[in-house]
Amino acid sequence: MTPLDHMIILPVILPAMTAAFLVLALRHHLKGQRTVSIVVTALLLGIATFLFAQASDGTVRAYRLGDWPAPYGITLVLDRLSATLLLLTAVLALCVAVYAAGGVDGRGRHFHPLFQFQLMGINGAFLTGDVFNLFVFFEVMLIASYGLMLHGGGPARLKAGFQYVAINLLASVVFLVGVGLIYAVTGTLNMADLAMKVPQVAEADAAVLKAGALLLFLVFATKAALVPLHWWLPATYAGTSAPAAALFMIMTKVGAYAIIRVYGLVFGAGAGPLALAAAPFVIPAALVTLGVGAIGLVGSRTLRDLSAFAVIASMGTLLVAIGLFDTAGLSAGLYYLVHSTLAGAALFLIAGLVQEQRGAASDRLLPAPAMAGETLLGGLFFLAAIALVGLPPLSGFLGKVMILQAAQAAAIWPWIWALILAASLVMTFGFARAGSVLFWASGPASESRAPPALPLAAVVLLLGLTVAWTLAAGPATDGLQLTARQALDRSAYIGAVLGPDVRLATGN
Amino acid sequence: MTLLLVVLIPFMGALLPPLVIRSGRNTCAVATGGVTLLALALLMSHAPAVFSGEVPKAGVDWVPAMGLSLSVFADGLGFFFAAMILVIGLLVIVYARFYLSREDPMGRFFAYLLLFQGSMVGVVLSDNVILLLVFWEMTSLTSFLLIGFWTKRADARQGARMALVITGGGGLALIAGLLLLAQAAGSYQLTEILSRGEMVRASPLYLPALLLVLAGAFTKSAQFPFHFWLPHAMAAPTPVSAYLHSATMVKAGVFLLARLWPVLAGTEAWFLIIAPAGLVTMLIGAAIALFRNDLKGLLAYSTVSHLGLMTMLLGLGTPMAAVAAVFHVINHATFKAALFMSAGIVDHEAGTRDIRRLGGLMVLMPVTGTLALLAAASMAGVPLFNGFLSKEMMLEEAAHTSYLGLDLLFPVLATVAAVFSVAYSARFAIGTFLGPVRGDYPHHPHDPPLGMWLPVAVLVVPVIAIGLFPGPVAGPLVALTAAAVIGGPLPDYHLALWHGITPALVMSLVAFAGAAALILAFRRADALRARLPRIDAKAMFEASTGMFVVGCRRSLVALHDGALARYMGVTVATLIAVGGYGFWSATHGAGTRPPLPVTATALTAFLALVLASGGVLAFHGERLTALILTGVVGVVVALAFLQFSAPDLALTQISVDVVTTILMLLALNLLPKATPREQSLAVRWRDGTVAGLAGLGVAGLAYAVMTRNGTSISEYYLTQSKPGGGGTNVVNVILVDFRGYDTFAEIIVLGIAALAIYALLDPALKGAAVRRIKAMLPRTESRDAHPLLLVVATRVLLPLSLVVGAYIFLRGHNEPGGGFIAGLVVAIALIMQYIASGYGWAAERMKVDAQSMIGAGVAIAGLTGIAAFAFGRPFLTSTFGYLHSPVVGTFELASAMAFDLGVFLTVVGVMLLSLAQLSRVAHRVDPSPESREPMDVQLERTVPRTAGGES
User: Fold this and answer.
1) Are residues B95 and B112 in the same domain?
2) Which of B247, B282, B491, B593 is most buried, most CB within 10 Å of its CB?
3) Domain enclosing residue A345, as ranges
4) Which residues of B touch A73 (CB under 8 A)?
5) How does pLDDT run across B904-914, given as a tens digit for each residue?
């Protein structure tokens, strides 16, 4: 193995070791923590970029931990899909770290170690090729996000945090049950091995396996905030600090990613009697999710609540695309995924700034004295809102149109179109109402200071990336089509993990 | 490529005004005008080509995968509209420079205006339907910003929102419509689509596409019943009204109908839907306009009416009507923009736009008055002005139209609309400028500076020039544009003042006569109108959106009531339903593996488990009891592990159980002692049913699993443990080697948990939280907080426990044990010191910092894994060797042991940190002096205190 081959594991161990270092050496040194955290996150971005470039050649790369052969040891798998999400995570993380360094990280202990551990968990989940290891990294994510979520304290945060952890622990238990059932029938945990064994399931075992598969699906759906399993999201995202909420934008995507991996590949179109096991549920639930998100957005009383429901709506839209389980749907979905992560994070960060600037009025959607930087924040909000609603000219519109185009493969496409467009209208209304109250209907100026530079820079960076994502939509979609094709290609994945001979044996 | 720049320049130029506003308002206006002029010049560079019949095109790919390209084309229609947008834009910029006051942020205004201009030019030049959609919605968005420009005015905000919701919503329908259209035509390029009219009209998607496109066009062009947003958009500054809401944006719908005319027109549906919609809009708009007292309101409804006129003409579907529509677009743009600007001047100078407070301004502001009267005459359709010509053509077309067998419907209603149209024009002119001079204007009116009236004058020039010499002045432009609309040979028409005695002329004369009567009887008509029920669209819109918001809020509150029990209930019910579906929808065969015999021990353990679980259910309100009963579950599980030959797991289970129980006890000490009963019996039954079903489901699945013989990868672990992992304890080798990566992450989970607990409880150390806990805690405590026996026992046992821990750690690779269990054992030993002797005593003696232990543990485990890199192996690859030592003999040294050390340190650190932080909170709450008794003999203290008595 050459040193470069180890790059695959770095997105996991670099943040882990950084967090350990921060706890060991810089525990009482916030400035030092900030510097190290930002530098490491930038480094992570470099690594992710390298991996992305590497994966762009179309090869699926496996990394066998402990040098144990698959399926006995744990295998990491780097393909275009995981590389894309690693890169997205790193980009988002850098913006969030910069924002947090503006002062939020000092409101409690251990922000940066928790932040790094969180990154480790997310990256680990994107890289793993093992279902049980996915569980482990879900746990890392869950516990780190719990810490981040509560960071800074407060009773509302504590209550939301308790619900968050309670619902997610239930999900973890169900994860174990699901994995247990799948293991009981197939005798393996490696995804590639599963993808081989699931189609050959004995008739007598199919029911147990399918029950396990669907329970596991519900776990991922919980993470992805699919209605009616979305309960944890609004209070959590609205209750936590702005940078934490912004980082959490990628966590719902982990759920979506897991659905793509497990239900596109293991239980995908080629899974024999269990083919597309989760497909009947995804699109209907996603449409309801979109509706709940849009209605919640209009009914929200604070900007952070509104942002949280915008996230739910965007997850609905995203899962409509993923639920198609075909190349067009998946590539549209992935384009939208990147978009909604960046724009959603920007919105949460803006909400954080608004909350700070408005003082006592916080981010409640009621007129208050004008804050300093009203025009600037209003402009940024306008852009973020356009992006999230999916109005032109930003990437949300492009993503939405791609999804509409792809949705025609589904029998219920008129419903999908009607709901997506109607939800856009409702969201337009909700955002227009909120924005005009927050940034237009304000009274005489209050004596707030101009918004702090670092957090502002983070917001501008995120929105700039959204614009860049819009401009680069051509090459991006070309790449994502390859990504989608690869993600749904069982033989390439199985071959990379279990060796080319196996691929020949399966004959696909 | 310059054609593409025509679209892009306004967008790029939009950055300019906010930048140069510091150099003054004139510079800002000049910069904005310069941008527009540049775009116009570039457009005009294509004029020769366009007029010679070529269609200049330009474009670059944007997103080929979705059929989106940044491609533009300038046929007659697009060229004409783009020129109109830019020319009027230029005039509006000049006008706005003098219209806006010093307080208005002009940089922002011009930036918005340029963004709008770019979007609008984009709409009319797009060759790609998706690109057209992009620009279409951007005009809605920029219009939102411009209507709401005076942000502190409630009516501006409401008007802006209403316009956005209606036109933006229509735009969303248009997205669907144009996508379907593109699908029916098999191309996203308009130039392609325009040549495939037959194909589209034959497609089953034609009707849905048409309806959705009309939803977009009608909302944008304020057609009945979507007309109501336009008058409320008048809250915008007048330059915006003149530009967006009379000359350009509201014509986008008309433009779209004209653009798609060759593809969509000519069917029954087209005529039956569009023509009457236009007719009704024309009539209603004109009728309402007559009774508006606000000048801008009057003009707004007049605009609605004229948009209806154009829509109706396009809806008729005949080439002749299309020519008339195009001609009227030109004429309306000139006189209406001029009138809006005049109204703005009046408002600016006289301080009011209320027609009832105006009159006689002709004397005071002769220039404005003259210009406005000329434009109003055109609006009324007086001969010699351009409005007359296109209106005659409209009446002529209406006269020949038969709708569903009704021959008179169109001619009569069009004439009635013409009556109103003449009447409101007259009212506008007379009420504002004619009549006696009044003494009660809010300001003293006089003609504005040149910059404000010059744009009006420029617009009035074509009003007269076309009116007098229609053929030479407008002929080529109309022919060019109309040819593009029709997409085929032009009909035989003649732009002229005099066509002889035609039906249209008769209808016109009727209109003038009727209008004269109406003006004379205006008071009575107005009184009559006042008695009619008034439909206040804005109030209705606000009320219905308000109701919608309330509805959303209610459903939100009902759905997200914050009750965890309900969330969990729905979640579990979903699990049951979907899991059950999964099971029942697939084939199932009963397991074949014979069950084990039921032994007395197994039965006892089973009953203990059942009783304990039931007990937890029954006594969950009493937390201490519930905690102890959960302990029973842990013990039984440990016994089961032992029974099935998994001593490692049993050991782990036991130690984990002990540690968690201790931590929970400490935590419970700081919490209320009982759970309040909150739920009704019915709710509890419901929840119980859901939970019971879930439990049965899991039990059933577990039974199904246990009764079948699966093959699994575990065989490999059994055979490879020694040769590959260097250990005979397979469980340990799995933990630290085969799946060491899992373990690495799991110790991190523990570490994070401890750090999170630490961070979480940190605020609890502060005043308010401490007081709250204090108030909650019972006052009675055990007399003997540090019992002698316990203190002595724990201290004596400490070294022993540490040795046991070391032993368990070292033998872990081959025998039951390992870093995890060793860590727990050592942690228990240390925790016992805290419990027995108190936090202060133990903390003082604890020289190793728990957080550092966690950090070091994770670091050591990680570094062990990374060390493999040096040997060219993947992360966590283990190695082992055998050392020969004279004393101990041969023993094995595996790299996995270093990893296990990391595990060990992390586990100890986690337990200690959690405990320490809990104890610190308790200590803050009850900061009684620490016991130094009974074992610490301190020489300087002569009077011993009774053990533990002070707590």
Assistant:
1) yes
2) B282
3) 278-471
4) 738-739
5) 999 999 998 98
